[in-house]
Amino acid sequence: MAEQRDIKWVKYRALEYLANEARIHYSLAERGLLVELQDLNRVHGSIPAEGKTLARLLYVPNRDFNRASTRVLKEFVPEGDGRLTHQMVERELAEAAEYIERQRRNAKKGGRPKEPTG
């Protein structure tokens, strides 16, 4: 399993998710699986490519996972070492890391300027 990311939150792109044309044709089970896999990707940085491992991580029977995963897994791209990642999730994580770094630099400068009282 990949290391857990230190990022505690990301901006969720509901509009981008809802506009995903592939999602429109997914069953409810496939839509739920896509969200669950994206969440695993957010937490771990990538997901295993092996279906049995993913089913175990999601606590679902292999049969149910296999039924819903055929089209959904096509949205993920190989990252290497037998792992997959989702491009939208990678953008979210990159933006969150950039934001955190910007906040860290600002904090080193003393943080947000105090508002004058008076």
Task: Supply database-style keywords.
57% helix, 6 helices, mainly alpha, 118 residues, three-stranded antiparallel β-sheet, Arc Repressor Mutant, subunit A, elongated
Explain this structure.
There is one protein chain. By secondary structure, the protein is mainly alpha-helical. It has one domain (14-108): Orthogonal Bundle (Arc Repressor Mutant, subunit A). It is 57% helix and 9% strand. It has six helices and three strands. The chain has helices at residues 14-19, 21-24, 28-44, 51-57, 62-72, 87-108; strands at 47-48, 76-80, 83-86. A three-stranded antiparallel beta sheet has the order 1-3-2. Strand 2 and strand 3 form a beta hairpin. The longest helix is centred in the last third of the chain and has 22 residues, at 87-108. The mean pLDDT is 86.
